[in-house]
Design goal:
single chain, alpha/beta, Rossmann fold, 2 domains, six-stranded parallel sheet, five-stranded parallel sheet, 12 helices, globular
Length: 300
Amino acid sequence: MTRAARAGRVHRVALITSHALGDTLLLMVIARNLLDHGVEVAVFGRVSHALRGWFPDVDIRPVPDEGHLCAELAHFDIVLQMHDHQPVRNLNAFHANVRILETLTTDIWNRPMVTRFTDFCRAEFDLDEVGTGNGIVPRAGLQHRRYTRRVVIHPEASSSDKRWLPHRFLRLARHLERWGYEVAFVMAPDELARWDALLLSRFAVHTFSNLDGLAAWLYESAWFIGNDSGVGHLAANLGIPTLSLFRRRAVAQRWRPAWGNAQVVLPWQWLPGASLKERFWRETLTCSRVLSAFARMTEA
């Protein structure tokens, strides 16, 4: 039991997770630390509920509709949510003690988000010890990294400013194939329209109707390369060596995957100023730079 709980302040916590996959996996670090210190936790969220089989000892529920939200949250001493606008708008109207965590995204030292969440657990709940793990557990019957030559490429991201050039992903895939790897692209069904028939006919492209199936497939893959995205966080969280393509060093330092052998590759840094780096990062991040980073990761 935490000192905070012994003091009678917090016994029961509701954690409402983000619609974003990466944010959800990071927020589960808070749930894990609270549970490990004897605090009762219930997690609410669309993404977290889709992955509930990977967190078997956590009480994970869908977000109730507004008509049932007050009754559902009444049991808890405090309610945590990452953003004030999602998944629940105006959360203060449904519970008297709400903590929005969006302020944690601003940090003068630009520490990794997982560090900010663990420090939040220590400071807010007076936890004796905190860790960066979120307690994800593989489903029974799966073999970790079973397909030893499978390189998963995820060329998509939540917004266009995070997506590397499509023709460079194709060139990357051809090089990896020549090196003897089995290249498999993965993307959501609604993302296929952005990709031409050349890729769709040349390489295996996998889509999944749910996150549980995606997680199982990633867990048995050997390597992962992708843009800054939630799928990269999931791959790293599952212990798959992960190479993430980032626009700028400061962004990578804050949002890079937090677990396992997760490496970052950045564009050439010779352009002055953040705005130019943001504008031309796709051109200055070359295919050879990504291949070199992948080779270093595989050798390690």
